[in-house]
Amino acid sequence: MKIKSKHVSAMSDDSKQLSRRQFLRSSAVAPLGLITAVAYAKQTTVKIEHIDLFAVRYPTKGYFKFFTGPRGAYGRGAVIVKITTDSGSIGWGQSIPSPLWSYETLETATIVLQDYLGPVLIGRDPLDIDGAHEAMERALAPGFSTAMPIARSGLDIALHDLAGKLKGRSLSQMWNRPSGGPLKLSWTVNARTLNEAEKVIDAGYKRGYSNFNIKVAPNPKFDVGLARLVRKRAPDGFLWADANGGYDPATALAVAPKLADAGVDVLEAPLKPNRISGYQALKKQGALPILMDEGVVSPVELTEFIRLGMLDGVAMKPSRCGGLLPAKKQIEIIQDAGLMWLGSGLTDPDISMAAALALYGAFGLTRPVALNGPQFLTADVLTKPLTIANGTAAVPSGPGLGIEVDEGKVAELMKGTTGSKRIEI
Ligand SMILES: [Mg+2]
């Protein structure tokens, strides 16, 4: 019976109904003891009882082009998500929108979680993460791909944390994979002048980093100079250029061989993701491995983009994909296709960083990871901070995300930064 109830709990509500009907039909001839056991298993199924949301802005240090908000707001916006079951178990997650990176904002993520994606999870089995994604897909219809993936990701991460805590297993254990790590971190060089870049590189070295990712575009001359400077200062490091879709196709084709010549190892997001023929031309040119980031949201378009010959690899980030479940599927697709994947992020604060570390560690990433939260953010909400030293991060161990969130710190951060009130669903 144990196996059967486990199997039932992994299915969606619809299939659960069906299997219950099927069971009732077949149970007409079943012994009484069996029926009692099933009724008991059903009664003890844990349900999601309520969800709390906390809108915050993590304070930052250093210049980074993605942190400005409306009406002078500054900081890394995040909606911290807390899912509570009727048994009192808790899972934490985090949605991390950045309006200068994509169209999702702290305000829209909050309202979408509150009124659309959050309510459809109430009453659900927290172990049924596939079913939760199906319910969220029905609650907010997709555009070209998954709707509001960054908002959705906060719930997905909280569900993974909760499932791990309910099972007493870490994420890698739930995935039947080794935990992996520690992971080398990459230092982000986002500079407006070469002088400023020198200072940023020095600061990275001082913190024990020796691998650098540079922000490039739209000025190819500056970009090649920046690449040369970083390569000179870090002759053996992995040098990764991210244009965030900032070149046009002709400029990208002209600059890619020059960046290669300057010592860049990979070129990420040279174009906006809807420049399909431009990506095909860059891949065909072969000057540098072409990685995509923006625009790869669900596993479906990743498969399509691979078929179309648009990319040599992907810079992964669970938040962009709608969470860990679709991100894990994407890594499997990339590996099956024999392509490259790198670990990246959206300047993830502690909770979403723990999720990304678990995913990248479990899939054996050895290249430096562009998770630059520790470089730019000055606050955390954990009882015990993530283990980060000398440019490396340990993969947290323990059930779920392997972290403990201090709710007092969450409330304080909310009060001190956005002044918002806790939202209860
Ligand atoms: Mg990127």
Structure description:
The protein is an alpha/beta fold. The protein is built from 17 helices and 14 strands. Bound molecules: magnesium ion. Residues 242, 244, 268-269, 293, 315, 344 line the site of magnesium ion.
Question: Which secondary structure elements does this structure contain, and how are they paired or packed?
Answer:
Elements: H1 2-9, H2 13-26, H3 32-43, E1 48-58, E2 76-85, E3 90-95, H4 106-117, H5 129-139, H6 149-167, H7 171-174, E4 183-184, E5 187-189, H8 194-206, E6 212-215, H9 220-233, E7 239-242, H10 249-261, E8 266-268, H11 276-285, E9 290-292, H12 299-307, E10 313-316, H13 318-321, H14 324-336, E11 340-343, H15 350-362, H16 373-376, E12 388-389, E13 392-393, H17 407-417, E14 423-424
Helix pairs in contact: 4-6, 5-6, 8-9, 9-10, 10-11
Bound molecules: magnesium ion.
Strand order of the largest sheet: 5-6-7-8-9-10-11
Q: Whole-number radius of gyration?
A: 23 Å
State the secondary-structure class.
Answer: alpha/beta
Largest sheet: 7 strands, parallel
State the helicity in percent bands: 40-55%
Do you know the CATH architecture of the largest domain? Alpha-Beta Barrel
Quaternary structure state of the chains depicted: single chain
Q: How far is it from the N-terminal to the C-terminal residue, by CA?
A: 34 Å
Give the ligands present: magnesium ion
For CATH, the homologous superfamily of the largest domain is named as: Enolase-like C-terminal domain
What low-confidence regions span 5 or more consecutive residues with pLDDT below 50?
1-43
